[in-house]
Amino acid sequence: MKKKITRMLALCLIAFLLLPAFSAAALGVSIDDDADALRAQWRRDEGPRKAGFSLDYSYFEPQAAAKEKLPLFVFMPGAGEGTYEGKELLQNSFYKWSGEEYQSRVTDAAGAYLLILRAPEPIYFDTCPVESIHAAIMDFVSRYNVDKTRVYLFGWCLGENGALKTALAHPDDYAGIALFSGRRAISGSDAEKLRDMAVWLLGCTGDTYSVYGIYTAPSWSNVRTVGDPAKRRLTSCTSAPRAAAIFNHNLWRLAENDYSADAQTFYEDLSTVNGAGRTVKAPSFIDWFTRWSTDAQEEAPSVSGAFLQRISAFIRALLAVIVRLLG
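Below the sequence we write its predicted structure tokens.
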């Protein structure tokens, strides 16, 4: 009997060790696959017409959406990424977030919806009516199994303006916002409207278009003093990749790769701090926004909910086997 129990325990242990691989495979396509395979998971749709515009977009729906409500990340690209339908998915690399590895980083949910809006250029997000933007997002939220308390806005370059003005116009509908290399400063009154949101600002002191001292620095000065310091982050650097003809402008590559070590090599003097001025040791966009971290959690990264679930399931299965064998 002892040998049989030992053999069963060994089999349970092997199954537990293999479970993460099987769980990841169930999530979908790996980021190790090519871009076409990842983009093939996305579909296209269009929002309702508001204020004279209807915005189309590319979106990703996780498999787990059939069973539970999931967070939603909304992306607003910069100039040149919306000249034709579908370009919003080709011009940047946020399609990577549909990969199984990135989806598994979502806290307290089995993945997240992704939506990349397209501005109908030459109408860019800085001039596109805010109600057109908001209507497209809320229409998507109403038609899919989205957790309405966990909708996050990401905007870069002129898309930063669109994300910011949408959050300011409808602060109760968004849980967080990430702004990269923008050209609109956040005022003191704006910061008050963002009080309850998680806010992450990113800027480069060498940016020749979105001048750090005019936009990012005053924005950070205003938002860091309003609300919970743990829900405030600033990422800065002195050198960054260029975007078209603009030097030191591409900060969103960090987010496209969820602040990976490989992505960090393209930046000089890169650092991230929270609202209290404390250095964030291991920045992550997906985990942080969906986790709403505290200072303590930042200093001691939490074990993911998915891993805890695997441990719990393993223990329950093990106990069931032991009871059955001894019974």
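The longest helix spans residues 2-27.
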